[in-house]
Specification:
It is a single chain. Helix content is about 30%, strand content about 25%. The protein is of the alpha/beta class and about 650 residues long. The chain is built from 20 helices and 32 strands. Strand 16 and strand 17 form a beta hairpin. It folds into two domains: about 425 residues, Rossmann fold, CATH 3.40.50; about 120 residues, GMP Synthetase, Chain A, domain 3. It has an eight-stranded mixed beta sheet with strand order 14-13-10-8-9-16-17-25, with helices on both faces. Bound molecules: ligand 6R9. Ligand 6R9 binds next to helix 11, strand 26 and strand 27.
């Protein structure tokens, strides 16, 4: 490790040496890769420079080379058709199926008997599947889905925990050309219903329940609640018997997973898909009240993932890859399921809570399976860090060679704790920036990069970004601006489901060639990028994107609420939590027991949105700051939060 102090971002110089974890404001740490790592890396610094230069000179040639490393039923006519930009069609004219690359092709290679999946339940039960076993399971389910009448283009909602059948369901859908739409198991019946109806799902796959922090979370009951009255589109509900719960099974509609696949054959044809045929829909929050169903397809998505696994995560045949992302999050799709399987590596999946039964669970899992690459989120690291170093010390973590982070900015002190106490100063930390919409990693260090804690480093070769002001003009180094992506990239979103008209306005407000990420960032004098957070009205609660308007709308559906505004406030563990400003309806405002009202509203939000929406506090006010056109001005509330005196009832110009 080398210490560079001082002037980098105009910060004061700090000369005296410190312990590695005692970061002082103004000091900048720089970490160089260990020599052995440089020798062994899939991409060494020279190769990185060459790749970057060649991708700049011939971007399409660069991505074409990446695509050539995968298997296709038919190759493309053109690598990219941008004649209708910002509509971009990657690998136009090609035919493929992501499952052919993730599973089928491994069966004829040495990977056939390699472990594809190591799964561990919260109670300690485990299951392991070789590529061949996983392939057979997926085929059985694919056949069963076909016998239920499902095929190309049909939508399947997955409301599932982190269990092997979730992965199987995703792959089986892809195999038959159906489109999966995973809904986070922490979302409410209402949120589930909204997504089921929006995508007109024919099938819902769920589990009776699952284990989380020593309790059983009942999922089937929530599905039943979601399907009451409406959701006529759903013909079948398949239920995995995970928690041995005594659930109601509707005779005509519900069927146990095991009963469904029991008689099925273990071989199944893989559907031939066009490049942009949809693979999945995943909802994410935006500035509007309604979540957007981001659509990804088969071809570009797999090419992007293939590159990041091979180059960023530096996959070797002996790796054990553990990404802790949930299946309801893009990280679970890309780096628990599709990416690792395309790379032919062994992926680890853990059902439960990181603190169960105590704060060493993750380190125990790393040690027992010999995890070599650990990919997690700052909110998880912060939580575990709070419990101290004695927990990682209980286990042998020496198999780890790469650590990675995603979902929100990682502060230097969290980075250093992860580096020192989990990686024992031997493992680079890959701070990967990307989004649901980008499909896979976009900005990230490589294992051989010289690292600065807190920076997401540079765009990967083939990806080009800039930091601009509101009008799209580049800002200088050190100045905060909006992050944009200046070239199309293969794993980019195809569409917003059911709202194609929103796609261009939301993501290309500055026109083609300027994808608007919605994040604030700076570039330092070394050209490294630092992400500061969202620029729009979207909170990042423990790595989950939750729209302020989404929560405000949920409050407004309660009879006690006349008006509501929600802002994000910093939180040590979750990064951000919500604070709500509520104007009560007159008859409720007259009530004395505010605690009762708070309890009632919290329950209401849990029901409407789900437990992911953490409301830290509520304040009851007489009025909210609005513009003359009636828009809530959240920055006034934020200023108030910071101690500035404001007049809440005043009309503010935006
Ligand atoms: C993969 C994922 C995307 C938003 C993104 C940004 C934040 C993600 C980050 C990061 C700082 C990182 N974000 N990675 N911020 N450093 N390494 O998280 O997708 O759920 O769509 O969220 O998350 O604000 O815009 P998604």
């Amino acid at each position: 490790m080398e210490r560079r102090t001082g002037m980098k971002r105009g910060l004061p110089r700090k000369e005296n040496a410190m312990k590695e974890t005692d970061m002082a404001y103004g000091e900048e740490l720089v970490f160089r890769p260990l020599p052995q790592l440089v020798i062994e890396a899939n991409v060494n610094p020279q190769e990185f420079a060459t790749a970057q230069a060649s991708a700049k000179a011939d971007n399409l040639g660069y991505w074409e080379d990446a695509a050539q490393e995968l298997d296709w039923f038919n190759k493309w006519d053109v690598v990219l058709d941008d004649s209708e930009a910002p509509r971009y069609q990657w690998f136009k004219g090609a035919q493929c199926n992501i499952v052919y690359n993730a599973l089928d092709r491994h069966i004829t290679t040495a990977n056939k008997n390699k472990l594809a999946l190591i799964w561990e339940g919260e109670a300690g039960d485990t299951k392991k599947y070789t590529y061949y076993e996983l392939y057979r399971e997926v085929n059985k389910l694919a056949n069963a889905m076909r016998s239920l009448g499902l095929g190309k283009g049909d939508r399947v909602v997955l409301y599932m925990p982190l269990i092997p059948q979730t992965m199987m369901a995703m792959l089986a859908c892809a195999k038959i050309g159906a489109v999966h739409c995973a809904v986070f198991a922490g979302f409410s019946a209402k949120a589930l219903r909204q997504r089921i109806t929006e995508v007109e799902a024919k099938l819902v796959v769920t589990a009776d329940g699952f284990y989380r922090n020593g309790r059983i979370v009942n999922l089937k009951a929530t599905v039943d609640e979601a399907l009451v009255g409406g959701c006529d589109c759903v013909e079948t509900v398949v239920v995995v018997n995970r928690a041995k719960l005594d659930v109601d099974m509707g005779e005509a509609r519900d069927i146990w997973y095991d009963a469904l696949v029991r008689q099925e054959r273990s071989d199944a044809a893989t559907e031939i898909m066009n490049s942009d045929d949809p693979l999945f829909i995943l909802h994410t929050s935006g500035t509007t009240g309604e979540p957007k169903g981001i659509v990804h397809g088969h071809a570009g998505y797999m090419v992007g993932l293939h590159r990041s696994l091979d180059w960023v995560f530096d996959i070797k045949p002996t790796d054990i890859f553990w990404c802790t992302g949930d299946m309801g999050w893009i990280t679970g799709h890309s780096y628990v399921v599709y990416g690792p399987l395309i790379a032919g590596t062994t992926t680890v999946m853990y059902e439960g809570h990181p603190l169960y039964p105590q704060a060493d669970r993750m380190w125990d899992i790393v040690a027992r399976y010999g995890v070599t690459i650990l990919y997690t989120a700052p909110t998880v690291i912060r939580m575990l860090m709070r419990y101290g170093n004695q927990y990682p010390r209980m286990h042998d973590l020496s198999t780890l060679r790469l650590l990675a982070s995603v979902g929100e900015p990682i502060s230097p002190d969290t980075w250093l704790w992860f580096y020192k106490f989990i990686g024992h100063s031997q493992c680079p930390i890959l701070d990967t920036w990307w989004q649901t919409e980008t499909g896979g990693c976009m900005i990230s260090p490589f294992p051989v990069s010289v690292l600065k804690p807190g920076s997401v480093h540079r765009p990967m070769p083939g990806i080009e970004v800039d930091i601009v002001d509101e009008d799209g003009n580049p800002v200088e180094a050190g100045v905060a601006g909006n992050l944009i992506v200046t070239r199309p990239w293969p794993s980019m979103l195809l569409d917003i489901f059911g709202k194609p008209e929103l796609r261009d306005a939301t993501y290309w407000p500055l026109g083609p060639g300027k994808y608007w990420a919605g994040d604030i960032a700076t570039r330092d004098e070394d050209g490294l990028i630092w992400i500061h957070g969202r620029s729009d009205d979207v909170m990042n609660i423990a790595g989950h994107r939750i729209g302020n308007v989404e929560l405000e709308n949920a409050f407004l559906t309660h009879k006690a609420v006349a008006d509501a505004a929600v802002i994000g406030i910093p939180d040590k563990i979750k990064g951000e939590v919500a604070k709500a400003y509520i104007v009560l309806q007159a008859e409720f405002a007259a009530l004395d027991d505010r605690n009762e009202i708070i309890r009632m509203l919290k329950t209401h939000i849990r029901k409407e949105v789900g437990p992911v929406a953490v409301i830290r506090s509520m304040e009851f006010v007489e009025a909210l700051p609005r513009t003359s056109s009636g828009k809530i001005v959240r920055r006034v509330l934020k200023a108030r939060e910071a101690g500035v005196q404001v007049d809440l009832g005043a009309v503010v110009e935006d």
